[in-house]
Amino acid sequence: MQKRQTSCEWWLIPGQGMRGGAQGGEKRSRNDPLWRVEFKLIVEASQEGEAYRPVKSHDVDSFMNTLAFTYLPVSLSRFSTGLWRLWLGKKPAFLFPGIGASGPQVAGKTDSHILLPLNESDLEEQFVKGHGPGGQATNKTSNCVVLKHIPSGIVVKCHQTRSVDQNRKLAREILQGKVDLFYRGEDSHIHKVKKEAERKKRERKKKAKETLEKKRLLKELMSKELRPTAPFPPEE
Amino acid sequence: MWLWRMKPWILGPRGVKWKGGLYWASLRPVSGCRALLVTATALVNHWTQLFEERGVPEARESSEYIVAHVLGAKTFQSLPASQRSTPITKLQQEQIGELCARRLQRMPVQYVIGEWDFQGLTLKMAPPVFIPRPETEELVNLVLHEESQRWQEPRGKGTLGHQPRSYPLILDVCCGSGAIALSLLSRLTQSRVVAVDKGEEAVRLTRENAQRLHLENRIQIVHHDVTAGVNREQLLVWGPVDFLVSNPPYIFHRDMEQLAPEILSYEDTDSLDGGEDGMRVITEILSQAPVLLKDSGSIFLEVDPRHPELVGKWLQSCPDLGLSISATHVDFCGKPRFLHIRKSRGSGS
User: Fold this and answer.
1) How many CB atoms lie within 10 A of CB A92?
2) Cα–Cα–Cα angle for A151, B336, B252, rounded to 5 degrees
3) Which end of chain B is least crowded, N or C, by CB within 10 Å?
């Protein structure tokens, strides 16, 4: 058995959003990420023909950028070994690593419209610190909830509502979507919805184009029919 | 001259913090310039700085909630980025200024904007009625969980195969703004609630909130002081209840003076002070509970973290009541906050 040297490098690259902002004044869309994390699995093989292959990059939004950094190195070590296994002959899509981490169980037939479930034991919740004695004795209005998915290191911050309870529920929903995207990559629900929307848009454009073409032809036809008609014959 | 400084706030990239606030002086228009190009973000930064200078706690949160409220949103984070960077009208700026002036007087944000959210409902808030705390949302969840459990347990002998529908009857003692009562009513669509409070303003506010949420046909609001004795006619208007839920005043009297000025100056101290060991109203409620509660019923109380032990001992010292603590639950900060009390087996009828 020939030995292989493997290493996993990760690169933090300014994303579209960061570049757009740096130029100043340019309008950026909400979906443009500020940062992108690119993983490169490097395999130095003894046999010729084998080479390294960059694994799919993963967009990290600004919140994750500030909070997830502390967790990335921890999850990366699990990541690299997982990716190594994946890369060798298995599908390049992000299947869940399943190394020591109690990730969500993937059913044999993954139903596309069902998100991967989240285990409460995998979650770590944080509320704003310094709550004091709490209860009736304090009146804090900072109801931000920070929710972390420990196996993947994904962190979600939610302050959409003024109710802590609602923010907790929303944070879980958002996190579930992100974890699903993280583990299932192209097979994830979010991705499929996006692709479906794009496909429908393309179809609509095609139809509109065809309709326009038909109208143009009809107009031409009508104008041809009208032209041969002579003006009123002069009175003799 | 300040206009060129203003530009970055309007067109700056998202997520980048700009150091320094905007001093009040620089908001005065330059002679000849009529329109003030102030964005929501700039205004929040300005008021945050002012609050911090005046020692108002939660400076950023307060200014965010006030600005968001005037712009029609619940939180600043839920405002779309485009709206955060569009100029604010003069009228809106005046409204924000008025509300922030009240906050500078240490009025709680909930009273400043006149509303607050609880379990997905938006309730009107008005001084001096007690403002619902976030911990109390968990109390509602406990009641909902218990209600769902009751109808999942396998029934004993003597019951029919067909399960009857659940029409839980709930008694909310010291209802305040009606937060607990109304959230239970909205989540349990077949339930009915009797809400009690000794304060006239609380009764009025609960009634108003019930009307706003169109729940007034399933709630009875009673103006009564539970420490003055049992009021059977009004509290038992629909019979003994399935749930007795309460967030009674439970602060130890000696801790009252340490409360923040927001609480002491604006909220009704009677809704906070629980007597020497915070037990005054709790013991009164528990003394009357056996009469008000069905045998299969449950009591849910929000208490001080020191109370589970005190309440346990007190219940043991009053065996005639036939009540015992079934479970103690923690709040989201991990402190023991909620008691689940039931009638002990073999007590009375």
Assistant:
1) 13
2) 145
3) C
Interface probe with A: pick from B14, B118, B143, B144, most Cβ of A within 10 Å? B14
**pLDDT score of A129:** 55
Q: Which of B44, B63, B77 to mutate to test the interface with A (most CBs of A within 10 A)?
A: B77
Phi-psi region of B275 (alpha: psi -120 to 50; beta: other; left: phi over 0): left
Residues of chain A with C-beta less than 8 angstroms from the C-beta of B61: 141-142
- Check pLDDT > 60 for residue B90: yes
Tell me how far apart the alpha carbons of residues B144 and B133 are, in angstroms, rounded to a whole number: 18
Type and span of the H or E element at A67: helix A62-67
Q: What is the pLDDT of residues A40-84, one digit of tens each?
A: 544 443 343 333 343 444 444 434 444 444 444 444 444 444 444
A106 Cβ neighbours under 8 A, 6+ residues apart: A95, A96, A116, A183, A184
Q: How far is B29 from chain A (nearest CA, A)?
A: 25
How far, in Å, CA of A143 to CA of A166, rounded?
A: 10
DSSP letter string over B205-245? HHHHHHHHTT-GGGEEEEE--GGG---HHHHTTT-SEEEEE
Give, as one character, the DSSP assignment of residue B87.
B
What three-state secondary structure class fits B344?
coil
Query: Residue B63 has which token pair?
Result: 């200014």
Beta-strand relationship, B293-302 and A154-158: unpaired
Rounded to the nearest angstrom, the gap between the alpha carbon of residue B134 and the centroid of all alpha carbons in its chain is: 6
* A7 Cβ contact list (under 8 Å, min separation 6): A41, A42, A80
Q: What is the DSSP string of A137-185?
A: G-------EEEEETTTTEEEEE-SSS-HHHHHHHHHHHHHHHHHHHHHG
Contact: A142, B333; criterion CB under 8 Å: no
pLDDT band at A132 (very low <50, low <70, confident <90, very high): confident
C-alpha A127/C-alpha B171 separation (Å) is 31
A118 and A104 in contact (C-beta within 8 Å)?
yes
* Sign of the dihedral defined by the CA atoms of residues B42, B45, B49, B50, in that order: positive
Neighboring chain A residues of B119 at a CB cutoff of 8 Å: 163, 165-166
Cα–Cα distances (Å) from B185 to A205, B133, B164, B320, in that order, read 49, 19, 19, 32
Q: How far is B146 from chain A (nearest CA, A)?
A: 18
* pLDDT of amino acid A66: 42
CA distance B341 to B329: 11
Q: What percent of chain B has pLDDT over 90?
A: 76
Nearest CA distance, A177 vs chain B (angstrom): 19
Phi, psi of A123 (to 5 degrees): -105, 145
Q: How far apart are CA A208 and CA A226, in angstroms?
A: 27
Closest residue, chain A, to B271 (C-alpha): A136
* The pLDDT of residue A133: 83
Closest-approach residue (CA) in chain B for A164: B134
